[in-house]
Write a structure and sequence with these properties.
CATH superfamily of the largest domain: FAD/NAD(P)-binding domain
CATH class of the largest domain: Alpha Beta
Distance between the termini: 47 Å
Shape: globular
Bound molecules: flavin-adenine dinucleotide
Order of helices and strands: EHEHHEEEEHEEEEHEEHEEHEEEHHH
Number of helices: 10
CATH topology of the largest domain: FAD/NAD(P)-binding domain
Strand content: 15-25%
CATH architecture of the largest domain: 3-Layer(bba) Sandwich
Number of domains: 2
Structural class: alpha/beta
Helix content: 25-40%
Radius of gyration: 21 Å
Number of strands: 17
Length: about 425
């Protein structure tokens, strides 16, 4: 049994920022990660570029600088995917703080509870089960594993239960930059042979040259010339929290990756000599469990640029980007833009549970709202807010719910985090 002020489950963009933020507040932190590398989708998932914006002064600014992608913008028009291999080292160095014990290759296997209060985690390590006790636990597992095991109220997907498709991202090299196009997704009108590239892809799919569900061929630039980050493979109807569905999905995605490599080589000018050089070590999951909290935020609020007195993430901005749960492309015929919005502290407090905070894509919101705040910049800012909150609660000997949010906001603004409109 080991004792900590703060235990963070999951070392993705949210969990890393939660751990570092709590440690910088002086808390003793355990960071538990099931893979042998930190970074979550940012590394193991091969996901990039880092999309979305948040108000100034958060760890997001520090991280994009660290990873060498300071020019990244909201939807990736000028952004570039980071060097994933380098990121594995840079992020490991970043989290290598004297106050943080990092448990790699260690999965959350159970939750320690006293009544409705989460008091720690049981983790499956190479040495067997190990119990970690903590004043506050932060669930940054993306899939809300801790909250689920603790008995939180969970929702998944839209009304019919379908979730956004899973995708395996991969990197190709060998693009001739003089003619090889870039396509960042549905917002992009880049042309090929006089028509919009994505419409051209659709035509090729109609001719049988590409499976219909792979017709949205997204080709992001990376920090290296001649490379593209390909965000196109997809399998629909997968619930990644069902262990019997994972292998088949991963297998199909890896088949699609090489099918796409061949399609690009044969059909897209400048891509004749490309080859796959790397891919996610794991299936990329856009959507799984959402933890219902003290407040459930909606896409309508995000679109309107909502403000809350208990704001802890300010001026978050990204489109409502719903990859079609039932087929190809976007779920709705149009992209919905949002005004820069706030996320309230209540979205990070799982209803009916004490001692637990959630951060990252599994926070409390609707299916459509999740499709906006799930991007990495926003998840980083969420992680940081919960890390500071958890450290403060541990210091005061209170639960995260009992915190004075004004005091939390004061600490955040004192360290330069932009929380309020001028
Ligand atoms: C295919 C795809 C493309 C995307 N494209 C973009 C993009 O271009 N830009 C962008 O900004 N965002 C993009 N996103 C969204 C973004 O990557 C995620 O929403 C974001 O990474 C969520 O951050 P997180 O920290 O909440 O979760 P994650 O990044 O998923 O990290 C969660 C961490 O928890 C760990 N974990 C899970 N369960 C356990 C357990 N039981 N025990 C221990 N550890 C555990 C995981 O291993 C992982 O490291 C994309 C997502 C996908 C899937």
């Amino acid at each position: 049994m080991k004792f900590y002020d703060v235990i963070v489950a999951g070392a993705g963009p949210a969990g890393l920022c939660a751990a570092v933020a709590a440690a910088r507040q002086g808390a003793r932190v355990a960071l538990v990660e099931r893979y042998g590398v930190v970074g979550g989708n940012l590394t193991a998932g091969y996901v990039g570029p880092i999309l979305g914006m948040v108000g100034k002064g958060t760890l997001r600014d520090e991280l994009v600088k660290l990873l060498g992608v300071p020019e990244n913008d909201m939807i990736g028009e000028t952004g570039k995917a980071h060097d994933v291999e380098r990121a594995k080292l840079l992020l490991a160095r970043w989290v290598n703080h004297e106050n943080i014990d990092v448990y790699l290759q260690s999965s959350v296997a159970g939750v320690l509870k006293e009544g409705n209060r989460v008091t720690g985690l049981s983790i499956a390590t190479q040495e067997g089960l190990l119990d970690l006790k903590g004043s506050v636990v932060i669930d940054a597992t993306g899939d809300a594993v801790v909250s689920y095991l603790a008995g939180a109220h969970i929702e998944k997907g839209r009304e019919d239960g379908l979730m956004q498709p899973v995708t395996l991202e991969f990197t190709i090299d060998g693009v001739d930059e003089r003619i090889g196009l870039i396509c960042i997704g549905d917002v992009d009108n880049v042309q090929l042979n006089g028509i919009r590239f994505l419409d051209w892809c659709k035509q090729r799919a109609d001719e049988g040259k590409l499976p219909q569900k792979l017709a949205a061929v997204r080709l992001h630039p990376t920090v290296y010339s001649g490379q593209r980050q390909v965000n196109t493979t997809q399998v629909n109807g997968v619930d990644i929290t069902r262990v019997d569905q994972i292998f088949k999905a991963d297998l199909e995605l890896r088949e699609q990756m090489f099918l796409l490599e061949a399609f690009l080589r044969e059909n897209v000018p400048g891509y004749e000599n490309i080859r796959v050089i790397s891919s996610g070590t794991t299936t990329g999951v856009r959507e799984s469990r959402r933890v219902m909290g003290d407040y459930v935020i909606t896409a309508e609020e995000l679109a309107a640029g909502c403000r809350f007195p208990d704001v802890v993430v300010h001026k978050a901005e990204f489109i409502v980007d719903i990859h079609n749960p039932a087929g190809a492309g976007q779920a709705e015929d149009h992209i919905q833009y949002c005004k820069p919005y706030d996320l309230p502290y209540r979205c990070f407090l799982p209803a009916g549970l004490e001692g637990l905070l959630v951060a990252g894509r599994c926070i409390s919101g609707t299916h459509r709202a999740h499709a906006s705040y799930r991007v990495m910049s926003i998840c980083m800012a969420m992680g940081e807010a919960t890390g500071i909150a958890a450290a403060l609660a541990a210091r005061k000997g209170c639960t995260p719910r009992a915190l004075d949010v004004k005091e939390l906001q004061q600490i955040m603004t004192n360290q330069g985090i932009d929380l309020f409109d001028e």
